């Protein structure tokens, strides 16, 4: 277990143990504590909150693995489990903000925590509530960065598939759609509980300062913005998948069109071949010379092929070319 204590407002970071962190939490006017439980949190009957000196039974779930997203407010202290985008995964960080301390608990290294602690000497938050909102704003930024990266990749795939369609693009689009759905499932519970607790705090605390009300509204606005961006990413992924399906459908239409042309050419040939292959009196009595065979046998087949080609080309190519030229001319005539 790695415990880091940040003395505020200096922002000096020191590595300590739980005992020293507990002493800092009890004596300091404002301190930030980060607890990294590493990959395997220690099995201990005593809750981590009690080991940190938080004797309130309401926080006994702090640091407990497999906790779902939650936000609670009790006796002037806010705590919750916050989903954070870390690489290609969504992890959960336990957060507690009291009057004189701000605590984060997680398993393994988290880029957001390192960035947040590194920015503290520049940000210099005056109290734990401001620190909490700074941290939550960083949480939302992890989603926005992941959404932007996925959105740009969807647009690149959509542009590439129009240039040259490849089967690999389908697999990547499916992964991006799954990524968007994963982000939505991870963020939606937090958006719901955060909205609930912020509205409740504004309604219950009539003496809430204007600064904290502004921070509440900013956080609510950013939460809604992230939801809109996630939905836009899902729409973009669906649109790209529809475009890929349309390209496949167009290619199939071209193949079907070619088969139709071949069928219209060989169908009359097959009919004439079968007709002249019949052994009845008219054919055996009339088609007795080479000239009559060339006139009826070969001539009718050549005529049928010419008529079929004219019909097919007129219906598919010449007519479409004429209509497109007419549309272009009409477009040029318009002011």
Automatic annotation (TrEMBL):
- Matching PANTHER family: CORA FAMILY METAL ION TRANSPORTER (EUROFUNG) (PTHR46494), ZINC TRANSPORT PROTEIN ZNTB (PTHR46494:SF3)
Indicate the family of this protein: Belongs to the CorA metal ion transporter (MIT) (TC 1.A.35) family.
Q: What is its main location?
A: membrane
GO terms of molecular function: cobalt ion binding; cobalt ion transmembrane transporter activity; magnesium ion binding; magnesium ion transmembrane transporter activity
Alphabetized UniProt keyword annotations: Cell inner membrane, Cell membrane, Ion transport, Membrane, Transmembrane, Transmembrane helix, Transport, Zinc
Q: Which organism is it from?
A: Streptomyces avermitilis (strain ATCC 31267 / DSM 46492 / JCM 5070 / NBRC 14893 / NCIMB 12804 / NRRL 8165 / MA-4680)
Does this UniProt record's set of keywords contain Transport? yes
Mark the transmembrane ranges. 259-281, 293-313
Q: Where in the cell is it found?
A: Cell membrane
What is the residue range of the signal peptide feature?
Answer: none
**What is the topology of this protein in the membrane according to its UniProt annotation?**
Multi-pass membrane protein
Name the UniProt record assigns to this protein:
Cation transporter
Superkingdom, natural source:
Bacteria
Task: Mention any Pfam family matching this sequence.
Answer: CorA
Q: Name one GO cellular component term.
A: plasma membrane
